[in-house]
Design brief:
Elements lengths: L4 E5 L3 E4 L7 H9 L4 E4 L10 H12 L9 E7 L7 H8 L3 E6 L19 H10 L3 E3 L13 H16 L5 E3 L5 H8 L5 E5 L1 H5 L2 H5 L16 H12 L5 E3 L8 H4 L14 H11 L6 H13 L7 E5 L3 E2 L4 E3 L2 E3 L7 E2 L2 E4 L1
Parallel strand pairs: 2-3, 3-4, 4-5, 5-6, 6-7, 7-8, 8-9
Antiparallel strand pairs: 1-10, 10-15, 11-14, 12-13
C-alpha cells in the first residue's frame, strides 16, 4: 500500500539564494519553514568577498528567521581573481562559513566579478585544498562560441576534470547539475566530489520551458536540458548514492524582471521545495530514499552532524499561492496557483 504519511530527519538545503534587505522578509521564512540549515550563496551586488561581509550578511538573515524556527544560515564567500589568501584561512576558522563559491565570470546572476580563468585562482585553490575548505562550483563555461546546452559538459571536460587531477585532495561540490555528463563524472570521482540536484531539474526539461511559448519562470541557469539528461538526474537522486544530495538553488527574482527582455535566470522553489521533493520521490515509489537525499548525505559530506529534529509530511492536496510579496514588488513561485500532493504537517 502506498504511503500517505512520512516522518524524516529535518532536511537541509545545500544551495540557496536569499537575496538581501527587504527580500529577506519573504525568502527567509519560506526556507526556515522546513529546512534546518541552508548554504547561502554570496552573489549579491556587491558580492560577498570577505568573511567579515559574510558574517554581517548572516546577521541580516538571522533577523528575519521566525521565532519558532531552528533555521541556521551557513555562509559562503565569492571567489574572485584578487581574493586575499587570508580569506581562505578566515573561512576555515569560522563555524558559520562553509566554503568558497566559484562562479565563472558572467555565468549567471551577479557573476560579473567571478573568476576570469581557472589559472588565476590556483594559488587560492591550493590553499583551500591544504586547509580542507570546500569549493562550491557553478559548472559552466562562458565562451560565447559554446552552445548554452553544452556549457556544463565542456566545463566538466576542460576545467573540472583537470582541476580534480591537479588537486585530488580538494573537496568540490558541483552545484545544481543538469547533465548526464555531470552525473557520470561525479559517480566516477573520489569521495571528495559531490553534487547537488534541484527539484526543478528533476521535474522539468527544456520542452517544458518552451511548450506553447516561452515560460520565463522556468528559465534558470544552468538551463533545463533534454529529457535524456533529466532521466540521468532522476536516477542519481533516487539511487541512494551519497554523492548526490538536495540543493534547491531557489533563486528569487521579482515578476517584472522575469517577465521582461531581461529574462532573469532563476526559479523560486523555497515555498514548496520539500513538498515537491516528497512528491517527486513518491511518484517514483522511492519515498524510502528521500531521507538520505534530503537529510543525511549533504551533512555527511560537509562533516556536520545530522539534524536532531524531525518533520512529518502527509499526502494532502493544497494549492500554491499565485505570488508573494517581494519588497514592493511580487515574486512568482514554482507551481504558482497549482495543486501539490504533499504537505508538511509537523515541523
Amino acid at each position: 500500500m502506498a504511503s500517505t504519511k512520512i516522518t524524516i530527519t529535518q532536511p537541509d538545503d545545500w544551495h540557496l539564494h536569499l537575496r538581501d534587505e527587504e527580500a529577506l522578509s519573504t525568502t527567509v521564512p519560506h526556507s526556515a519553514k522546513h529546512f534546518g540549515r541552508a548554504i547561502v550563496m554570496p552573489n549579491l551586488d556587491p558580492p560577498i568577498v570577505s568573511a567579515q561581509a559574510a558574517l554581517r550578511y548572516r546577521e541580516r538573515i538571522i533577523a528575519k528567521i521566525p521565532p519558532n524556527s531552528n533555521f541556521q544560515p551557513l555562509m559562503t564567500l565569492y571567489l574572485t581573481d584578487n581574493m586575499e589568501p587570508s580569506e581562505v584561512s578566515n573561512v576555515k576558522e569560522s563555524a558559520h562559513i562553509m566554503g568558497i563559491k566559484y562562479y565563472p565570470a558572467g555565468a549567471t546572476t551577479n557573476s560579473d566579478s567571478g573568476v576570469t580563468g581557472i589559472a588565476e585562482v590556483y594559488t587560492l585553490i591550493e590553499k583551500m585544498a591544504l586547509l580542507g575548505v570546500p569549493l562550491l562550483v557553478h559548472g559552466e563555461v562562458t565562451d560565447p562560441n559554446v552552445d548554452i546546452f553544452d556549457r556544463e559538459r565542456i566545463f566538466v571536460e576542460t576545467i573540472l576534470s583537470p582541476l580534480t587531477e591537479r588537486y585530488p585532495e580538494l573537496k568540490i561540490i558541483l552545484e545544481h547539475i543538469t547533465t548526464k555528463d555531470a552525473v557520470d563524472f561525479v559517480k566516477n570521482q573520489s569521495k571528495n566530489i559531490a553534487a547537488t540536484i534541484t527539484i526543478h531539474h528533476l521535474l522539468y526539461n527544456r520542452n517544458d520551458m518552451f511548450f506553447k511559448g516561452i515560460k520565463p519562470h522556468l528559465y534558470c541557469l544552468p538551463v533545463l536540458k533534454r529529457d535524456t539528461h533529466q532521466r540521468a538526474l532522476i536516477d542519481a537522486a533516487l539511487s541512494g548514492n551519497p554523492k548526490f544530495f538536495l540543493g534547491t538553488d531557489s533563486a528569487p527574482h521579482c515578476q517584472s524582471e522575469k517577465e521582461s527582455s531581461c529574462g532573469c535566470a532563476g526559479i523560486y522553489s523555497s515555498p514548496a521545495a520539500l513538498e515537491l521533493y516528497s512528491e517527486f520521490f513518491d511518484s517514483h515509489n522511492k519515498l524510502d530514499k528521500l531521507e538520505g537525499f534530503a537529510s543525511f548525505f549533504g551533512a555527511d559530506f560537509y562533516g556536520l552532524p545530522r539534524n536532531d529534529k524531525q518533520v512529518t509530511l502527509e499526502k494532502m492536496k493544497w494549492r500554491m499561492a499565485k505570488d508573494f510579496s517581494f519588497g514592493d514588488q511580487l515574486i512568482i513561485p514554482i507551481h504558482a496557483g497549482q495543486d501539490l500532493q504533499w504537505q508538511i504537517t509537523r515541523a
